[in-house]
């Protein structure tokens, strides 16, 4: 009898992640791809790679999508569930650290704080505007210093006299970093200062007014940076826990949520298979003029035929899609 597996897909502006869990919620395989502004391409590429990793003795029992492009991903794969990032990040944190009380999640383009009480989300905050509290801030500075972002953490740990990077804005922080370089400060000290600036900006932007309790769980791609772990711990004056696979916790959480939803019910997945990986797909949008709201409607086409639309304040286009 085939083993059941559950697939979580997390599509963000910077990266696209896939996680495959078995019936014991153990990670079977995963993928981390760069979205590069082409979510459809990255989803198709991921599905193609997964199709070779999923063996014939595995039965896909559920698929869920999350991330900023979760609706697009959900349409493409005909997902069973489309869930927001807060739900999925919280599910992953509680899976690895059952008594988690605070989740810090810093991704490439946004960051979140999730307050958990008694195993449920009690409060949250999210930053999608200021780059100074996200991973892209460090990525940009790594490029400026001709470094790989993967080397940032080790370099920060070499610091003996970290510099103070001024400004709560990414533009001002970058200007100050350049000034510190011109003054001759050592690169490890500048990098440690940048990590501290990101930690400070994260906490001041979205954690203000939140009751941060331990255990504090640090998730997202930035949690792979040891320099950032230290900077967050110093800013909070408390230790943080980094779970396994922090860069793909959104995808893991999506797989956990769909498994939880289906495990007590005899439901057949609506996943339309891996064939979509080779289909001719495109996406576009238009302004609906059927009322004064003028909603922007997103749509996906397969072989130039519309297969789904979404994004309106009403469901008029979704209703029409059912007749396509």
Salient structural properties:
single chain, 324 residues, alpha/beta, Nucleotidyltransferase, domain 5, 3 domains, five-stranded mixed beta sheet, 10 helices, globular
Question: Helices and strands in order, then pairings?
Answer:
Elements lengths: L2 E9 L3 E8 L4 E8 L4 H15 L4 E9 L3 H8 L3 E2 L2 H12 L5 E5 L4 E7 L2 E8 L7 H10 L7 H5 L13 H13 L4 H20 L9 E4 L6 H11 L3 E2 L7 H14 L18 E7 L8 E7 L2 E6 L5 H6 L3
Parallel strand pairs: 1-4, 4-5, 6-9, 9-10
Antiparallel strand pairs: 1-2, 2-3, 6-7, 7-8, 11-12, 12-13
Order of helices and strands: EEEHEHEHEEEHHHHEHEHEEEH
The largest β sheet comes out as: 5 strands, mixed
Number of strands: 13
**Strand order, biggest sheet?**
3-2-1-4-5
CATH topology of the largest domain: the name is Nucleotidyltransferase, domain 5
The average pLDDT score comes to 87
- What do we call the CATH homologous superfamily of the largest domain? ATPase, nucleotide binding domain
Provide the domain count. Answer: 3
Q: How large, in whole angstroms, is the Cα Rg?
A: 21 Å
Please mark out the parts with pLDDT under 50 across 5 or more consecutive residues, or reply none.
none
The CATH architecture of the largest domain would be 2-Layer Sandwich
Give the overall form. globular
Percent helix:
25-40%
Q: Kindly provide the name of the CATH class of the largest domain.
A: Alpha Beta
Kindly estimate the percentage of residues that lie in beta strands according to DSSP: 25-35%
């Amino acid at each position: 009898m085939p083993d059941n597996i559950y697939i979580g897909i997390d599509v963000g502006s910077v990266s696209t992640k896939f996680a495959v869990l078995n019936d014991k919620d153990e990670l079977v395989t995963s993928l981390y791809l760069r979205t590069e502004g082409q979510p459809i391409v990255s989803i198709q590429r991921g599905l193609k790679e997964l199709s070779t990793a999923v063996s014939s003795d595995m039965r896909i029992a559920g698929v869920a999508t999350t991330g900023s492009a979760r609706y697009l991903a959900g349409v493409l794969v005909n997902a069973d569930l489309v869930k927001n990032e807060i739900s999925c990040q919280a599910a992953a944190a509680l899976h690895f650290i059952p008594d988690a009380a605070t989740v810090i999640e810093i991704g490439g383009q946004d960051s979140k704080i999730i307050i958990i009480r008694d195993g449920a989300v009690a409060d949250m905050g999210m930053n999608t505007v200021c780059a100074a509290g996200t991973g892209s801030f460090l990525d940009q500075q790594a490029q400026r210093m001709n470094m790989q972002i993967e080397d940032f953490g080790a370099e920060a740990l070499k610091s003996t006299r970290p510099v103070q990077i001024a400004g709560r804005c990414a533009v001002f922080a970058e200007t100050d970093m350049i000034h510190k370089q011109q003054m001759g400060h050592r690169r490890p000290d500048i990098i440690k200062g940048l990590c501290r600036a990101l930690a400070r900006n994260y906490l001041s932007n979205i954690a203000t007014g939140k009751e941060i309790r331990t255990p504090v769980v640090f998730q997202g791609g930035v949690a792979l940076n040891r320099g950032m772990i230290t900077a967050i711990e110093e800013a909070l004056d408390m230790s943080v826990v980094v779970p396994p696979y922090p860069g793909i916790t959104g995808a893991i959480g999506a797989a956990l949520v769909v498994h939880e939803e289906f495990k007590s019910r005899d439901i057949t997945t609506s996943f339309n298979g891996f064939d979509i990986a080779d289909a001719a797909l495109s996406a576009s949008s238009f302004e609906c003029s059927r009322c004064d709201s003028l909603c922007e409607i997103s749509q996906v086409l397969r072989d130039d035929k519309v297969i789904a639309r979404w994004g309106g304040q009403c469901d008029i286009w979704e209703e029409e899609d059912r007749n396509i």
